[in-house]
Amino acid sequence: MATILIVEDEAVLRETVSYNLKNAGYQVDAVETGEAALKAVKERQPDLVVLDIMLPSIDGFEVCRQIRRTSSIPILILTARDDEIDRVVGLEIGADDYLTKPFSMRELMARVKALLRRREILQEELSGGQPGKSDVIQAGELEIDLGAHRVTVAGQEVNLKPREWDLLVFLARHPGLVCTSDQILQNVWGEDFFGDSRTVAVHVHGLREKLEIPGDGRRHIETVRGVGYRFAV
Ligand code: CA
């Protein structure tokens, strides 16, 4: 059973959301502050976070950013004002979806369900069944160990953000094939994600900086102009 963390300082809304999620069969943790949210994410590793933006002290933007440093768990943002929506949609913070207040519980449930299902499909796609010894993808000096969740370049371990890992594994599982930005968004971020091709471009850029050996000139992720990206074999 999935565990959902709700972060909302308004008691009535927090209770209403908790009540409805519990009724739908989810385990629910409810907290009032950003600090408590970060602690709960670390300690209890929920499967999804419902996160309000306007919180006392650390706001939802900052909470989202901090979660994203270590985790790619789905984050559904609750937002009230137009200027917040602009920042959420601007993708600065790495949320997966957002709902504008006031929203119906039915809408919330639908989004939660969709995010969890998408996550499940992605996990299956990324793990490709049981990890074993053969689950190592190699391309030149680059080695991706799917079982150990480890990437090395010329024997040196590379630290990837969770989303960079997801993106790399997705591309590397389709070597030589051109994947369009839309296909990447659908598979790595989920089809309801509100981002666009810039999101993919930014992450590809980040990956290249981490994976490429200076002076080597080899590109592991090639840009196919006007089409998308390809993992070079
Ligand atoms: Ca609030």
Topology:
Elements: E1 3-7, H1 11-23, E2 27-31, H2 34-44, E3 48-52, H3 60-70, E4 75-79, H4 82-89, E5 97-100, H5 105-127, E6 136-139, E7 142-145, E8 150-153, E9 156-158, H6 162-172, E10 178-180, H7 181-189, H8 197-211, E11 221-224, E12 228-231
Helix pairs in contact: 2-3, 6-7, 6-8, 7-8
The structure holds calcium ion.
Residues 8-10, 52, 54-55 line the site of calcium ion.
Describe this structure in words.
The chain is an alpha/beta fold and 233 residues long. It has 2 domains: 3-127, Response regulator (Rossmann fold), CATH 3.40.50; 130-231, Orthogonal Bundle (Arc Repressor Mutant, subunit A). 43% of the residues lie in helices and 21% in strands. It has helices spanning 11-23, 34-44, 60-70, 82-89, 105-127, 162-172, 181-189, 197-211, and strands at 3-7, 27-31, 48-52, 75-79, 97-100, 136-139, 142-145, 150-153, 156-158, 178-180, 221-224, 228-231. The strands form 3 sheets. A 5-stranded parallel sheet has the order 2-1-3-4-5, sandwiched between helices. A hairpin with a 4-residue loop joins strand 7 and strand 8 (150-153). It is elongated. The protein binds calcium ion (CA). Calcium ion binds next to loops.
List keywords for this structure.
233 residues; alpha/beta; Rossmann fold; Arc Repressor Mutant, subunit A; 2 domains; 4-stranded antiparallel sheet; 8 helices; 21% strand; binds calcium ion
Q: Could you please say which CATH topology of the largest domain applies here? A: Rossmann fold
User: Structural class from helices and strands?
Assistant: alpha/beta
Strand order of the largest sheet: 2-1-3-4-5
Bound molecules: calcium ion
- Counting DSSP H or I runs of 4 or more residues, the number of helices is 8
What is the gyration radius calculated from CA atoms? Answer: 19 Å
Proportion of β residues?
Answer: 15-25%
State the order of secondary-structure elements, H for helix, E for strand.
EHEHEHEHEHEEEEHEHHEE
Number of E strands: 12
Average pLDDT level:
86
Number of domains: 2
CATH architecture of the largest domain: 3-Layer(aba) Sandwich
Low-confidence sequence ranges = none
- Give the CATH superfamily of the largest domain: Response regulator
Regarding CATH, which class of the largest domain? Alpha Beta
